[in-house]
Design goal:
With 423 residues, the chain is mainly alpha-helical. It has 16 helices and 9 strands. It has a 3-stranded antiparallel beta sheet. Strands 1-2 form a two-stranded antiparallel ribbon. Strand 8 and strand 9 form a beta hairpin. Helix 1 packs antiparallel against helix 16 and helix 5 packs antiparallel against helix 6. The longest helix is centred in the first third of the chain and has 23 residues.
Length: 423
């Protein structure tokens, strides 16, 4: 059985601790990231419950009055990352970015609470439930104002999968130019062949400048955005988080709140049918700019399994589709189908394997009774971490560790998998 060095993984979390919040890795990402911290809280919870609670509490120190949880909270200054607070120009008391990320928070909160032993756990969970509920309400109001059931992202960074091929066509249509000078820091820490291209960054910052000029006002952003896509991963993760939020609401909320969550879940589950591509055997994004399906098969398309969205036959199709990928990329799960000509095994979200995505996909297959495939993904993830190092991501063809090293959320997943193995 593959084993992970538990003490080494714990040491990485401790080394990346900056006082109640964890940076993804030293220098490359010197702040607190939204979905990173949710997974990292689960890692802390395997050996330090108090620290898990603090991770979640420090993240919502950055939550806006309207409920949005930003994708970056700039607790302390650093020159190692661009764009910093001066580019975002938000008005929150603690500097933050102006966009969000996939909402793993409620899922992490439920799991931390369910294993909690501390006498103050219930009071802390009750307060954090209110934060999670406000975040989900924000998603509904700000990112699905027309009530379709599915939320949209207004920036590739909101998907967490920044340079996915799913965004290529929409990004290529952008005609706006950045007003902020591009001062990339990432490529001074990591090889440029593993990072988004300069053209990607130019477009990323052009969108930031556009929204900053609108004062980050959600309705104005929705009207003006030239990039508006229904991302499969974001919606799947939100749906799973709603499922977990509902469990918390039954203990800490009101009947009206439970009904609101249930109604959103029913609308979203029905609307997901429009993202299924039977010919490709996968869920695919929808570009609201063209109202067309995005012809890109990525790991995001498997994540509805995590949320219990597909029918049993669709789950079987997703399993078959993944098997076809693994003929060319033996380490699951590549972030882009290796059958796609845009597949790049070393470039960020255009091919590499990410431990957190593997964890969610494996849980999804397990949920549908595909235990052997789930186990294969879990074992492969442990092998990658053991042999490729606790890296940011991994080459799905060779298993090589890529990107940043001593990476927090990879360490957290390693700890979760080690705990599963010991149960």
């Amino acid at each position: 059985m593959t084993t992970i060095d538990i003490e080494a993984a714990r040491a990485i979390l401790r080394a990346n601790d900056r006082g109640g919040y964890t940076v993804p890795t030293d220098r490359l990402y010197p702040f607190q990231w939204n979905w990173d911290s949710a997974f990292v809280a689960l890692g802390w919870a395997t050996f330090d419950e108090e620290r898990a609670w603090r991770e979640l509490e420090r993240l919502v120190e950055g939550q806006w009055d309207d409920g949005m949880v930003p994708h970056i909270v700039f607790h302390a200054p650093s020159d190692d990352y661009f764009p910093g607070p001066d580019v975002w120009r938000t008005r929150h008391a603690i500097p933050t970015s102006g966009i969000t990320q996939p909402p793993v928070f409620a899922t992490a909160l439920r799991r931390v609470f369910e294993i909690a032993q501390r006498p103050d756990a219930k009071a802390r969970a009750a307060r954090l439930y209110r934060c999670a509920l406000a975040s989900h309400d924000w998603w509904e109001q700000a990112r699905d104002p027309e009530g379709t059931g599915l939320v949209a992202i207004l920036h590739p960074w909101e998907s967490g999968m920044d340079n996915s091929p799913a965004w290529d066509e929409a990004m290529a249509r952008l005609t706006i130019a950045p007003t902020t000078p591009i001062r990339r820091r990432d490529t001074s820490h990591i090889g440029a062949d593993m990072r988004p291209r300069d053209e990607d960054y130019r477009r990323f910052i052009a969108l930031v400048d556009l929204y900053a000029g609108l004062g980050w006002e959600p309705a104005a952003m929705w009207r003006a955005s030239p990039f508006k896509l229904v991302d499969v991963a974001t919606n799947a993760i939100l749906h799973k988080a709603e499922e977990d939020l509902l469990v918390l609401a039954e203990q800490f909320g009101t009947p009206a709140e439970c009904s609101r969550i249930e109604a959103r879940m029913a609308r979203r589950a029905a609307a997901f049918a429009g993202l299924w591509n039977q010919d490709r055997r996968i869920y695919q994004a929808r570009d609201l700019g063209t109202n067309k399906t995005v012809e890109a098969s990525t790991s995001a398309g498997l994540l509805p399994l995590f949320a219990g969205i597909p029918a049993a036959g669709q789950a079987a199709d997703l399993a078959d589709e993944l098997e076809s990928w693994l003929v060319r990329a033996p380490y699951p799960v590549p972030s882009t189908s290796p059958l796609d000509p845009r597949f790049e095994p070393k470039r960020y979200w255009r091919g590499p394997v990410w431990a957190v995505v593997n964890f969610m996909i494996a849980e999804g297959f397990e949920r549908y009774g595909h235990a052997a495939l789930a186990s294969r993904i879990h074992v492969a993830t442990q092998t990658l971490i053991r042999d490729g190092g606790v890296a940011e991501y991994f080459d799905p063809t060779s298993g090589e560790g890529l990107g940043g090293g001593r990476f927090s959320w990879t360490a957290a997943i390693g700890l979760l998998l080690a705990e599963r193995q010991s149960d």
